[in-house]
């Protein structure tokens, strides 16, 4: 072939503009010449030959263009030659449950509920790859709720099926709008957060009709008006011809929530597996769950008694006005008070008008704040309560009326001053990171503001001690990892400070979200990824995390999980449990305060059992979407073809190494 002869690909690739008319038409764009070719240098005979070749190319080009245009009109763009098969990779060991779920998900909108670590992303990658093959001009979209998850999943999917990186792109809110519009039209497999998708749909930047497969990670979030729900609502305005694959470790917190997810995401069926499902048992390791109930102790009980007196002073007013029906003040919850306030707003008494209404609203606001503090005291301890009350009394929370009302209450001020004497010296530490503990007076004894802290310390120290005894290698402590969950940042900080006493055996790091305006500075999403990287590589062996560490992120193998608090939603515990038992036996310890927290945990476990029973039993309990598109044309039944997929080396868009300036990054090896 002559060096001047272009291939059909060169011609087609450089000339087709999908938005223009057929190539070769006078209205189309002028076709650029091949690199290094200039007609001016050709002799007349060669010029004629070249013109003939280009004419031949043009004929082929028009034929290809017309064929592709016809293909996009027929069968929704389905390629019948590619569609005769569906590909399943053998580069990873074939697991029957993954193969079955992947096959199911190709032909029906499916919610896949698998315990963490059992291959939800693998299944998604298989489904995405097949839709990428079947619809050559279609788009495949993967949505995850956070930027770090988006970054993690694009690499994970590439490592499974090896879709060319040149066809994939990651988009976040920081990607400029005009760049995103360009990416939508030039790339075929997109990884993004749902909010970006909502924005691009509303601006018309996203070619909605071209989307053929939509994968939704952490799908249990698809409640109310969450961005996932908005995306699906917007997409169906343009097309119903796309597959939905939803992924979650757990379907929802209760049956009502599960039904909402099914309805909002147009789910036709659920593929549910629990830790006890026979087909996953060969691939999962035992997870021992231990429940430890800790008495409050005399000191905490005395603080609680004093705090209840304050609660009675403010809640009794609402009870007397008949706007708060529950009269058992010590057992009221913040949620019950919020419900009572909502009821008051919907159906106010005709006797309460004008200024009286404002007074009652103010009393509700004070009670909601006080009951939040009450829950902190019971679950997290006295120090967490003190930091919360400080935020009110120093004005940083902006609750002027609450501050003034509490300041006039003698019982409250007496309790507040008592807590201030105990914890005022620690407050600066919490605001600026806890590295000051190391620089300051190390001999100062750590104050255990809740008996649960002492129990947690015992468990962690004993874990490393027993690991040391059983393993004789030089890096014995480096080979085990511990992860501790607590819902509040102040508690995370307190736990980390306590464990710092046990350096260098315990090398602790905090892991919090990036929300600002808190007493403890959050991590940016890049910094979160760096913490995960260092934890996995052994820079730290103990991670103390808020809920940001529960979902999705690949933390690596963890041998011991400690839950420092109980959650009403079973989702939270399932997510936490999924951090362990991936490659070897794992242990989960749930530390509960005696009384309300223990009851909350028991109720959560009961809810989880009822959800699994409802899904596994009769379909009448849940109403599934009946309009799932088959996507594959009638008469075509793709056959399974197992294939070894060779993937290249994934190259991230940008280097993700960074040196965090915050002191929270500075205490590796006690420095």
TrEMBL record:
This is RNA helicase. Residues 1-54 are annotated as: Disordered. Its EC number is 3.6.4.13. Keywords: ATP-binding, DNA damage, DNA repair, DNA-binding, Helicase, Hydrolase, Nucleotide-binding, Nucleus, Phosphoprotein. It is found in: Nucleus. It comes from the Eukaryota. DNA-dependent ATPase component of the Fanconi anemia (FA) core complex. Required for the normal activation of the FA pathway, leading to monoubiquitination of the FANCI-FANCD2 complex in response to DNA damage, cellular resistance to DNA cross-linking drugs, and prevention of chromosomal breakage. In complex with CENPS and CENPX, binds double-stranded DNA (dsDNA), fork-structured DNA (fsDNA) and Holliday junction substrates. Its ATP-dependent DNA branch migration activity can process branched DNA structures such as a movable replication fork. It comes from Enhydra lutris kenyoni (northern sea otter). It is an enzyme of class 3 (hydrolase). Residues 101-269 form the Helicase ATP-binding domain. The gene is LOC111160959. One of its GO terms (biological process) is interstrand cross-link repair. Coiled coil: none annotated. InterPro entries: DEAD/DEAH_box_helicase_dom, FANCM/Mph1-like_ID, FANCM_DEXDc, Helicase_ATP-bd, Helicase_C-like, P-loop_NTPase. Belongs to the DEAD box helicase family. DEAH subfamily. FANCM sub-subfamily.
């Amino acid at each position: 072939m002559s060096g001047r002869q272009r291939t059909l690909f060169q011609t087609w690739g450089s000339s087709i503009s999908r938005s223009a008319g057929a190539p070769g038409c006078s209205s189309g764009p002028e076709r650029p010449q091949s690199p290094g070719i200039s007609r001016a240098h050709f002799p007349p005979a060669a010029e004629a030959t070249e013109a003939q070749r280009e004419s031949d190319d043009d004929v082929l080009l028009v034929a290809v263009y017309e064929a592709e245009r016809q293909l996009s009109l027929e069968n929704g763009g389905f390629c019948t030659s590619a569609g005769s098969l569906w590909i399943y990779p053998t580069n990873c060991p074939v697991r029957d449950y993954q193969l079955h779920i992947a096959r199911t998900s190709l032909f029906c909108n499916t919610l896949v509920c698998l315990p963490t670590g059992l291959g939800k992303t693998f299944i998604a990658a298989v489904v995405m790859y097949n839709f990428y093959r079947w619809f050559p001009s279609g788009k495949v979209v993967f949505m995850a709720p956070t930027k770090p998850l988006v970054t993690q999943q694009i690499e994970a999917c590439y490592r499974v099926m090896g879709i060319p990186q040149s066809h994939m792109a990651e988009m976040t809110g920081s990607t400029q709008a005009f760049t995103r519009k360009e990416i939508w039209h030039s790339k075929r497999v997109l990884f993004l957060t749902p909010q970006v998708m909502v924005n691009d749909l509303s601006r018309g930047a996203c070619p909605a009709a071209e989307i053929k497969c939509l994968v939704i990670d952490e799908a249990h979030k698809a409640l109310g008006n969450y961005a996932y729900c908005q995306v699906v609502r917007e997409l169906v305005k343009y097309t119903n011809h796309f597959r939905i694959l939803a992924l979650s470790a757990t379907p929802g917190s209760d049956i009502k929530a599960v039904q909402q997810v099914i309805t909002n995401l147009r789910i036709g069926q659920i593929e549910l597996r629990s830790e006890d499902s026979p087909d996953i048992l060969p691939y999962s390791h035992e997870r021992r769950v231990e429940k430890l109930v800790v008495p409050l102790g005399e000191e905490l009980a005395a603080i609680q008694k004093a705090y209840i007196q304050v609660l009675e002073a403010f809640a009794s007013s609402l009870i007397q006005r008949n706007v708060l029906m529950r009269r058992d003040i010590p057992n009221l919850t913040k949620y019950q008070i919020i419900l009572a306030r909502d009821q008051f707003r919907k159906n106010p008494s005709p006797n309460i008008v004008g200024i009286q209404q404002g007074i009652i609203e103010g009393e509700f606001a004070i009670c909601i704040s006080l009951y939040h503090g009450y829950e902190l005291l019971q679950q997290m301890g006295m120090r967490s309560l003190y930091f919360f009350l400080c935020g009110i009394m120093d004005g940083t929370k902006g609750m002027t009326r609450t501050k003034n009302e509490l300041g006039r209450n003698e019982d409250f001020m007496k309790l507040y001053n008592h807590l201030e004497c105990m914890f005022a010296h620690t407050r600066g530490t919490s605001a600026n990171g806890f590295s000051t503990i190391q620089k300051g007076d190390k001999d100062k004894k750590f104050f255990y503001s809740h008996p649960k802290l002492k129990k947690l310390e015992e468990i962690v120290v004993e874990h490393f001690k027993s690991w040391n005894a059983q393993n004789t290698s030089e890096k014995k402590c480096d080979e085990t990892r511990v992860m501790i969950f607590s819902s509040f940042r102040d508690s995370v900080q307190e736990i980390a400070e306590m464990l710092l006493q046990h350096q260098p055996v315990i090398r602790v790091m905090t892991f919090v979200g990036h929300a600002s305006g808190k007493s403890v500075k959050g991590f940016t999403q890049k910094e979160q990824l760096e913490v995960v990287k260092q934890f996995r590589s052994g820079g730290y062996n103990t991670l103390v995390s808020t809920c940001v560490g529960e979902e999705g992120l690949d933390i690596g193998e963890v041998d011991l999980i400690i839950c420092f608090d109980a959650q009403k939603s079973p989702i939270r515990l399932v997510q936490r449990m999924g951090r362990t038992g991936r490659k070897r036996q794992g242990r989960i310890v749930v530390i509960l305060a005696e009384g309300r927290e223990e009851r909350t945990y028991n109720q959560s476990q009961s809810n989880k059992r009822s959800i699994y029973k409802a899904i596994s039993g009769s379909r009448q309990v849940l109403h599934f979407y009946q309009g799932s598109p088959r996507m594959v044309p009638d008469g075509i039944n793709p056959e399974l073809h197992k294939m070894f997929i060779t993937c290249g080396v994934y190259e991230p868009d940008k280097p993700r190494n960074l040196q965090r300036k915050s002191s929270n990054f500075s205490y590796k090896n006690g420095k």
